[in-house]
Amino acid sequence: MSLSRRALLGATAATAAGALAPARAQKRPVIRIAVLNDQSGPYADDGGRMGVLCARQAVQEWGDHGFDVELLVGDHQNKPDIGAGLARQWIDQGGVDVVVDVPTSSVALAVNTVCREKDRAFLNSGGATTDLTGAQCAPTTVHWTYDTYMLAKSTGGAIVKAGGDSWYFVTADYVFGQQLERDTAGFVTGAGGKVLGARRYPFPDTTDFSSFLVQAQASGAKVLGLANAGGDTINCIKQAVEFGLTKTMKMAMLLGSINSVHALGLETAQGLLLTESFYWDLNERTRAFTNRIKPKLEKPSQWTNMVTTGNYGAILHYLKAVNDMGAVEAKKSGAAVVARMKKMPTDDDCYGPGRIREDGRKLHPAYLLEAKKPSESTGTWDLLKVVASTPGEQAFRPLPEGGCPFIKT
After folding, report:
1. In which element (H, E) is residue 310 found?
2. How many domains would you assign to the chain?
3. What is the Cα 92 distance to its own chain's centre?
4. How far apart are CA 1 and CA 369, in angstroms?
5. pLDDT, position 23
6. Is 80 exceeded by the pLDDT of residue 173?
7. In which domain, by residue range, is 372 found?
């Protein structure tokens, strides 16, 4: 397998720039954290550089506990071979101890395999596939932020209860989109609703959704389920508005973020429902975190969301576990560090108290959010309001249903 020149150069440059610890006369253990995500494609605005800023914030807040921390960054370009190749190169040649983030489920599963083989920790925030805690779960993996089951239960379930009982899906044709469509369809039909059709499109090579939207409109469904994310979701909704679909169909943004609502504008987005496990204006702790990172934002379109803050929470908890067992010992085995993480209760300003389940699933509440009317907003990022919440123990797929091969239930 060969890596693209852009991927190699991006990773190398980030490695040189990413070291956060100063040079010291006396050699100390070094924990190397690699953030791997989409820096240039459809998920870059929802994560990308903002995900790196949140990771860097965790390292800076951690401070000095007797070992140094280095942060590396790479762009997987939403391609499993590039993501797996970078992870393998980092571990084999760069001494990386943990890989973090990795949106795009197909890439996340490829990196999961590499980390399991190499016994290095994998803290996933950006990927949505439930296979990370199911058929392909690993003792080296923590799935921190969200998954397709949580999204389908929170957003899809709420829309069906509100009368949206007939659906048509437009789906990104890879693991994430397929699982999100499947999980949401399960909640729809389980509640007595119907799925009238679905169209899957090539990812990440599609920008014109007009033919899919016309077919959705012709189906007569009440709800258009968008089983995609990032720029694809934004483009679908904008084109749906142009075609007049919003006059007859409810838009279900099955994976959305405050960044998507900001890009759409409240005139277009008002009333949209979405689920996140973090919202900046949720409580004093989430606001405090956002105020700490706000001066470091690189452009006006950046803001905190669940994927980027998942990097912050996961890294902080990982470093607590490393400190608890000792950095030298922690560097020997990623599975050992993850096991220690599971034994320790989680708590940070973005997610509050929680825990990591035996299969690696991080448990915390899921929040159903609604985009405000323009008249309700008091500022640029005052865009959402909480309309419902699901406790962490109920938000995610029950442990016995996952089929994690190393868990006996």
Report:
1. helix 306-325
2. 2
3. 26
4. 42
5. 46
6. yes
7. 150-276+366-392
Backbone angles phi, psi at 119, to 5 degrees: 55, 50
Query: How far is it, in rounded angstroms, from Cα 36 to Cα 34?
Result: 6
CB proximity list for 11: less than 8 A, separation 6 or greater: 72, 73, 74, 75, 86, 89, 90
Distance CA 51, CA 311 (A): 7
Rounded Cα–Cα distance for residues 337 and 318 (Å): 7
**Could you tell me the pLDDT band of residue 14, with boundaries at 50, 70 and 90?**
very low
For residue 146, the SS3 value is coil
Query: What string of DSSP letters covers 326-385?
Result: -HHHHTT-HHHHHHHHHHSPB--TTT-SBEE-TTSBEE--EEEEEEPPGGG--STT--EE
pLDDT tens track for 199-208: 999 998 899 9
Query: pTM for the full model?
Result: 0.90
The H or E element containing residue 194 is: strand 194-201
CATH at 339 = 3.40.50.2300
Same structural domain, 142 and 154: no
pLDDT average, residue stretch 343-358? 98
